[in-house]
Amino acid sequence: MDIGVPSECMVRLGSKSSARTEQLSLQKQAGRGSLNSADWQTIRELKERCGNLSREMNRMYQDYRRFTTNIPYSVLLQHLQFEHPEYFDAFLIPKSNDGMVRVGKGGRKIEETELLERWRIGKSPSGIQIPEKIRADKEIWSMNSQDRAKKMGEWREEILGDMAQALAETGQDYNLSLRASDDMFNKKYTTLLKSKRIIACTTTAAAMYQDYLKEVDPAVLLVEEAGEVLESHIICALGPSTKQIILIGDHK
């Protein structure tokens, strides 16, 4: 400023400023890179997507917590249908071809999870009058209680693993959508920075605005009072296009 570089050629990153440099702050000048209506529409859509993903993650997490103590038989059957079809077939209640409803003792309607429930507690399907199940799936129904419990444990871990994976993927999708929204909203900052000859900042601001600085790709990095600055802070300010580093005031 003292040698006559125009103020419109400079911008300053950082929260603190003097009365003289306040006009150079990023926030003061950001209005020059305002977003258009299409940008705002994209931001609204991304925010809405983030809200939907957030609610979905909460639902998935609550299901996961609930399933760690008790996985419904219906969920187990659904898992077996796709991952272990031989067990699913063994626990499938045969459908009647004449439209009649298959019943158990006392005329009680047989639920679709009945065979799985009986198998888990060590019983056979004969109690609900399905002797063909014993013949067709003899190996499965002849398993002892310990082996059945082991299988149940394996299926439980598989289901919880799938749920954790799905939750992680939804979280990643949320992070990407949120980042895209923030990037779009902050597009005006990148546009502004690219229009400047000099970008002044503290080491903290260099780290905070690292993504914007990478977009601008400055070729020269000048560090004042370099002897007081940690090497790691200087590394944070480096970009892939840095061609020259000037260190001032480094007695070493």
Structure explained in plain terms:
By secondary structure, this protein is mainly alpha-helical. It has 2 domains: 7-33 and 186-247, no CATH class; 50-183, no CATH class. 55% of the residues lie in helices and 6% in strands. The protein has helices at 26-29, 37-67, 73-83, 85-91, 114-120, 131-136, 138-141, 145-185, 187-194, 203-208, 210-216, 231-237; strands spanning 10-13, 198-201, 220-223, 244-247. A two-stranded parallel sheet has the order 1-2. A two-stranded parallel ribbon has the order 3-4. Helix 3 (73-83) crosses helix 4 (85-91) and helix 9 (187-194) crosses helix 11. The longest helix has 41 residues, at 145-185. The radius of gyration is 32 Å and the shape is elongated.
Count of distinct structural domains: 2
Work out the strand percent: 5-15%
Q: Count the strands?
A: 4
Shape: elongated
What value does the Rg take, in angstroms? Answer: 32 Å
Instruction: Give the oligomeric state.
Output: single chain
Main sheet: which strands, in order across? Answer: 1-2
Number of helix segments?
12
Q: Identify low-pLDDT runs.
A: none
Distance between the amino and carboxyl termini: 29 Å
Give the integer mean of the pLDDT values. Answer: 86
What structural category arises from helix and sheet content? mainly alpha
Question: What's the SSE pattern?
Answer: EHHHHHHHHHEHHEHE
Q: Share of helix among residues?
A: 55-70%
Summarize the biggest pleated sheet.
Answer: 2 strands, parallel
